[in-house]
């Protein structure tokens, strides 16, 4: 693995400056936590802790704002991706066991859905979950029942390495050297055959995509680039002081709202943060619906006949966790109250 100094020296030579190292708007970075094996699978929980899947060690760790680490679980073999579902439970893909697992806040591990080779995952506004598994995109409802599968290699020629939500409602997919957009179940190529190795991406609430780029050519530099929703370059060297960046994730405030802190996992074992105030907007949430934010009074009043109090996505979610009969009814409301701990 290259040392940080070698990468920064390459950045210096690339711009031909004698005044100092090249800096983008996101520089300088600061170290949030280091000493990991490979922190390329990170997520941020509802109170701002950074969750890290240590692939080779088989551990899921939670890192608080002070850098203190807590073991969440070591019961998932070869964890490959982490995110949260609408209930606030951790979802983890496992390469070895071809499974997506759910981890409760108490650390209990259960099976969510069978997926071979899951490398990316996101929760949508209706609570459903998309999993990228290189050759296939899998779509499950909030309880882990399969909704659809889209073959990406056979149909589109893309080996998907990551999947990310954006404010326009579309999902964005990264391959090793390409960027795609999925809208209404159809994939559209935005960029292809780039001379880079692309990894993680995170969108802010204004639709700017922060895209991690690992340099692979002589004289190239590791960086984060900025793109718009159409895949156009906004700034190819938005941030340069990184080492083999592989994952980006926006932070959260203690109340659960997404903030402007941008965490970057690096293959050298460190998680760094972009310069304070450098991101153009607060992050766009990876989890589009949170169970804890459902209005109990509105959920009850709709059952009593008051229409249109709940968004369509919320009604769909409540039906899925209830009797799953394509309509929101009293059985679904009871299931919601049980899940919320209101009734047994």
CA radius of gyration: 20 Å
Number of strands: 24
- The CATH architecture classification of the largest domain is 6 Propeller
Span of the ends, CA to CA: 53 Å
Outline the low-pLDDT stretches: 1-20
Helix content: 10-25%
Order of helices and strands: HEEEEEEEEEEEEEHEEEEEEEEEEEHHH
Describe it for me?
The chain is mainly beta. The protein folds into two domains: about 5-275, TolB, C-terminal domain (Neuraminidase), CATH 2.120.10.30; about 295-340, no CATH class. The chain has helices at about 5-15, 150-155, 295-305, 310-320, 330-340; strands at about 30-35, 40-45, 50-55, 60-65, 70-75, 80-85, 90-95, 100-105, 110-115, 120-125, 130, 135-140, 145-150, 160-165, 170-175, 180-185, 185-190, 195-205, 210-215, 225, 235-240, 245-250, 260-265, 270-275. Helix 4 packs across helix 5. The longest helix is centred in the N-terminal third of the chain and has 12 residues, at about 5-15.
């Amino acid at each position: 693995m290259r040392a940080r100094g070698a990468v920064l020296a390459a950045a210096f030579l690339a711009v031909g400056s004698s005044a100092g190292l090249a800096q983008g708007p996101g520089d300088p970075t600061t170290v949030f936590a280091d000493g990991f094996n490979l922190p390329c699978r990170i997520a941020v929980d509802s109170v701002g802790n950074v969750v890290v899947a240590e692939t080779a060690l088989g551990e899921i760790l939670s890192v608080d704002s002070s850098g203190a680490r807590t073991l969440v679980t070591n019961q998932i073999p070869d964890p490959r991706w982490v995110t949260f579902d609408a209930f606030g439970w951790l979802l983890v893909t496992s390469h070895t066991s071809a499974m997506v697992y759910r981890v409760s806040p108490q650390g209990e591990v259960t099976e969510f859905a069978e997926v071979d080779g899951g490398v990316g995952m996101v929760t949508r506004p209706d609570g459903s979950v998309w999993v990228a598994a290189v050759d296939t995109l899998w779509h499950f409802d909030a309880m882990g029942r399969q909704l659809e599968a889209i073959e990406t290699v056979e149909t589109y020629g893309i080996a998907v390495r990551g999947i990310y939500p954006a404010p326009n409602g579309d999902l964005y997919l990264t391959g090793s050297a390409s960027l795609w957009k999925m809208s209404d179940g159809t994939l559209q190529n935005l960029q292809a055959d780039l001379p880079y190795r692309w990894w993680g991406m995170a969108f802010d609430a204004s639709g700017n995509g922060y895209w991690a780029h690992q340099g692979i050519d002589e004289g190239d530099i590791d960086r984060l680039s900025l793109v718009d929703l159409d895949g156009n370059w906004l700034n190819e060297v938005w941030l340069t002081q990184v080492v083999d960046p592989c994952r980006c994730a926006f932070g959260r405030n203690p109340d659960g709202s997404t903030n402007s802190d941008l965490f970057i996992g690096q293959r050298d074992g460190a998680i760094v943060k972009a310069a304070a105030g450098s991101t153009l907007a607060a992050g766009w949430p990876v989890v589009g619906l949170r169970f804890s934010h459902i209005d109990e009074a509105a959920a009850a009043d709709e059952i009593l006949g008051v229409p249109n109090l709940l968004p369509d996505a919320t009604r769909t979610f409540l039906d899925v966790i209830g009797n799953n009969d394509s309509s929101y009814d009293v059985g679904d409301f009871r299931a919601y109250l049980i899940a919320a701990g209101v009734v047994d």
